[in-house]
Amino acid sequence: MGKKSRVKTQKSGSGASAVVSPKETMNLISELLQKCSSAAPSAGKEWEEYVQIRGLVEKICKKQKGMSIVFEGSREDYFPDLMSWAQENGASCDSFTVANFGTEGYGLRATRDIKAEELFLWIPRKMLMTVESAQNSVLGPLYSQDRILQAMGNVTLAFHLLCERANPSSFWQPYIRSLPQEYDTPLFYQQDEVQVLLGTQAVQDVLSQYKNTARQYAYFYKLLQTHPAASKLLLKDSFTFEDYRWAVSSVMTRQNQIPTEDGSRIILALIPVWDMCNHTNGLITTGYNLEDDRCECVALQDYKENEQIYIFYGTRSNAEFVIHSGFFFQDNAHDRVKIKLGVSKSERLYAMKAEVLARAGIPASCIFALHCNEPPISAQLLAFLRVFCMTEEELKDYLFGDRAINKIFTLGKSEFPVSWENEIKLWTFLETRAALLLKTYKTTSQEDRSILEKPDLSLHSRMAIQLHLAEKQILEKASASGRAKRLHFEKKLEEGAPLPVYEESDSALLENTDADAKRPLILRKLEEVEEGQEIQAEEHSHILNGEKAVYVMDMEANGEPVQEETQEKVSKDANSASDSIRSSTQKVR
Question: Which PANTHER family match (predicted)?
């Protein structure tokens, strides 16, 4: 549309153009880098550290006011250019248009009837912003000499985005101009809005995310000013914290993984147009076609003309959506609360329990999840709790008894209890543990509902309260489910009901269900990760669709992991923070 970017220069009180003292700014940057690189604060001091870091960032932002690159006009003005650019470069754009869907933000609206599983959208590689395209750009010389950029693909993408935004003639300008100027990720929250998150499982990740972003900014600000390879970068003299926060959020809410052209490696990418799709429950319907070298998306369901087209982002909790995507999904079928459990090494039966768990492929200490639906626990957590509650005789039976190997594989199957007493113990434990976790919150579910009725509640505060409420509802359901199961097995014990015994003919019960077998590979892998297991390299192996190699994709790049932390205070569970930007996708487009 011919609109030009402009760089604003901060003005002094006299109205004359003034340049902030480089030394003054560099001193603040050095102080910020030192603060963010110091040892992790002691327990209970995380909020105090956040306030201090934020105070330094705000001082820097005041000195940088007016220096950021902005585009004239509204974001909506650039959508026609985006669609024309996509069409000219081989993307499919004849089945949809970009439209405003109110509280959901911008999304894709069908311009014709689309059938479920119909291929309606594809984006060729040349349109994607990738780590490879960054290496081949003006950023290449700095990338080749900086280990941080080489190690963190998401940071590389953020800088790639900033460099191309600063270049009016960039090939990706139609895409970059169509991106939001601000996001609803916690990086954009006011301090009092972040404070509302205190008490939720999300808050530690939110504080770490801000600290890591501030540290990255300070590091790269100094690098841009001193490294010879940065001398030709257009953003060198106008690299503001607000710019970096914008780039980080753009990448964090949109990045995905695609294979390299030869299929040998997985790299991070931004996928124009496709990333306009909003989220709903379902299955992943996007893949990468190596033969045609393009990202492809088939319809999740039937869509009538003028209906919004949705995709499924992956099995994420609402905490993950809020932190990394900037929205709360009310009907999230995959919402969950993390809970860290472990067998105490001081327990007399620790060695036996740890051995049984090891044979089942479960760590003796692990982060599990309580789910929003029934059953509230996974097969892995069921197996852990059964072993956790075993008596010495039961442990011996699973280690040395008849068909001990087969019995190990029944631990996660509800059809084969260890004993009625064992079931009573584990469900009592779950009932009690969930109830204890509920007591750590400062408000009740009913009080949260009352707060949500306030008309003057900000969007960010509303999401924070929704998180509080969602976590409590999951814990309430888990406690109620534990109680119901306990009563059920107490009745079985009282009635003297015979215990189901595993037979060889039951082996089919130990396999994946038909429903699970039909789900995309990546979904099953993500659920394994959720239960504390590491993602293995084979997750990225391609599946074959006819003669074409297609990589299944969700809107999560599984890049460098972020801090995982439980909400329970009494157990003092804490894991180290990562320096990464979490991958995810933004619902509000």
Answer: ACTIN-HISTIDINE N-METHYLTRANSFERASE, UNCHARACTERIZED PUTATIVE METHYLTRANSFERASE
